Amino acid sequence: MAFGLGERLTCHKCNSSFKNECNLAKHIKYECGKEARFFCDHCSTKSKRRYDIKMHMFKQHGVPFKKEKKNGDRLTCHKCHKSLKNKMTLRKHVKYQCGKEATYFCNYCPLKSKRHYDLKMHIYNKHAASVLKKKKDA
User: Fold this and answer.
1) Is the residue at 1 inside a domain?
2) If residue 75 lies in a helix (H) or strand (E), which one and from where to where?
């Protein structure tokens, strides 16, 4: 369904309006008719959204606004049980690395790598002098 400029979507429960379907869906799932789940540590303010409380605490109480990273947020590969930080890195790991043979080889030592970038960083960090000498001799 396409909407023209200025047209908004309305929640059928509370008549709040939204710019797009994604925002409306989040409103229905987490906010509409729900009790506040997040509370300020410094006063009686409460909200249905974590972001709103973090912004309140920053603006009203000077609490630094930072994104929390919990160890539980990491994902685990079902094949090798490696812990990865998000869905994208897990997908890349499964597609290009997990259970695969190394396809990149160092020209200066026996190191093998499954990722080109890792090999590139290895050469930069371990063999910079050799690389510069080779280029100079050429």
Assistant:
1) no
2) strand 75-76
